[in-house]
C-alpha cells in the first residue's frame, strides 16, 4: 500500500507511546510467575509476550492502517511485502531474562520503509531506559542525545558478544584483541553500542529482523556503523526476515573487525 503522509518523527512518537504501553503490561507479569509455553524452535514465550503483541498490534495498526506487520509473536503474513512501511517488533526481547526475573529485558519496536528503518525504540522498563531514534534526527536516551564510541583501536575495545562468537572459525584474520562482555537482550546490546557504553557488538548467527531493526537505527543515528556479519548493508521486511549476523561498532573499529572476518 502507498506510504501514509506521516513523518519519521511522528512514527517515533507513536512507537514511544507503544513501548511505554508494552512496559506497563510487562511489569504486571514480571516476577509474578507468568504462564510459559515452548515454541516450535524450543524458545520460550510467556503470557506477557502474547498480551503485548496483541495490544500493540491493535493500537499500532489502528493508528497506521496502511502499514504492514512483522512481529516475533504473530504468524507471518506475506501481505507485508506489498506494504511500503511496516512495523517490526519484538514484544519482549530477552524473554529468558524476563522469566528469570532479570531486569535487562527490552521492548524493541521499529518502522521500516522500503527496506530501511526510519524510526525505532528500545525500552527497558525495569531500568527506566528509553532509547529512541528517527531517520536524520539523531538518537536519544531518555530524551538526551547519545553518540557511539569513537574507539578506533581493537586494543582496549569492549565488544558485546557471546563466547561462541569469539571462536577462531569466525575470525579468519585472527581473533581480535578485544575485551568480551555480554548482556542478554540483543536489542539492548545494540542500544548500548549506540550509547557509547560499549565499543561494538557482534553476532554471527542468523538474526531475526525484530531483534535488530530498532537497534540498527539507534546505531546509525548515533554515528556508528552497523552491517550484517559480512559487512553488507542490513535490509528489512524481506520475505525471510533474517540477517546473516550483525557487526556494529564505531567506524574505525568496525573496519578493523571486518578485516579480521575476511580471508586474505
Overall outline:
globular
- Name of the CATH architecture of the largest domain: 2-Layer Sandwich
Helix coverage percent of residues? 25-40%
* Largest sheet composition: 7 strands, mixed
Number of domains: 2
Roughly how many Å apart are the termini?
Answer: 45 Å
* CATH homologous superfamily (4th level) name of the largest domain: Fructose-1,6-Bisphosphatase, subunit A, domain 1
Quick overview of this protein structure:
It contains six helices and 14 strands.
Considering the chains and any ligands shown, give keywords for the structure.
Fructose-1,6-Bisphosphatase, Chain A, domain 1, 14 strands, D-Maltodextrin-Binding Protein, domain 2, single chain, 2 domains, globular, 6 helices, 264 residues, alpha+beta, five-stranded mixed beta sheet, seven-stranded mixed beta sheet
What can you tell me about this protein's structure?
The protein is α+β, with helices and mostly antiparallel strands and 264 residues long. The chain has two domains: 8-143, Fructose-1,6-Bisphosphatase, Chain A, domain 1 (2-Layer Sandwich), CATH 3.30.540; 158-261, 3-Layer(aba) Sandwich (D-Maltodextrin-Binding Protein, domain 2). It is built from six helices and 14 strands. The protein has helices spanning 8-29, 47-63, 95-99, 186-195, 209-221, 251-261; strands at 36-38, 44-46, 68-71, 85-93, 106-113, 116-124, 129-134, 139-141, 144-145, 158-160, 179-181, 200-208, 225-227, 242-249. The mean pLDDT is 95.
Amino acid at each position: 500500500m502507498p506510504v501514509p503522509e506521516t513523518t519519521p518523527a511522528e512514527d517515533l512518537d507513536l512507537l514511544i507511546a507503544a513501548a511505554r504501553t508494552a512496559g506497563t503490561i510487562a511489569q504486571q507479569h514480571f516476577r509474578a510467575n507468568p504462564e510459559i509455553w515452548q515454541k516450535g524452535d524450543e524458545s520460550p514465550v510467556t503470557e506477557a509476550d502474547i498480551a503485548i503483541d496483541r495490544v500493540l498490534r491493535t493500537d499500532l495498526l489502528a493508528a497506521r492502517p496502511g502499514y504492514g506487520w512483522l512481529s516475533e509473536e504473530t504468524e507471518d503474513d506475506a501481505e507485508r511485502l506489498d506494504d511500503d512501511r511496516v512495523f517490526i517488533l519484538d514484544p519482549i526481547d530477552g524473554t529468558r531474562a524476563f522469566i528469570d526475573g532479570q531486569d535487562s529485558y527490552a521492548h524493541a519496536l521499529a518502522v521500516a520503509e522500503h527496506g530501511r528503518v526510519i524510526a525505532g525504540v528500545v525500552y527497558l522498563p525495569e531500568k527506566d531506559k528509553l532509547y529512541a531514534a528517527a531517520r536524520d534526527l539523531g538518537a536519544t536516551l531518555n530524551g538526551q542525545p547519545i553518540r557511539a564510541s569513537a574507539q578506533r583501536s581493537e586494543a582496549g575495545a569492549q565488544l558485546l558478544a557471546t563466547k561462541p562468537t569469539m571462536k577462531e572459525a569466525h575470525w579468519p584474520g585472527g581473533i581480535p584483541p578485544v575485551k568480551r562482555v555480554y548482556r542478554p537482550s540483543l536489542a539492548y546490546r545494540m542500544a548500548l553500542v549506540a550509547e557509547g557504553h560499549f565499543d561494538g557488538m557482534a553476532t554471527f548467527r542468523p538474526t531475526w529482523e525484530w531483534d535488530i531493526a530498532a537497534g540498527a537505527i539507534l546505531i546509525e543515528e548515533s554515528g556508528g556503523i552497523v552491517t550484517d556479519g559480512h559487512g553488507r548493508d542490513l535490509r528489512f521486511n524481506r520475505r525471510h526476515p533474517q540477517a546473516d549476523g550483525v557487526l556494529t561498532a564505531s567506524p574505525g573499529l568496525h573496519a578493523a573487525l571486518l578485516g579480521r572476518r575476511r580471508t586474505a
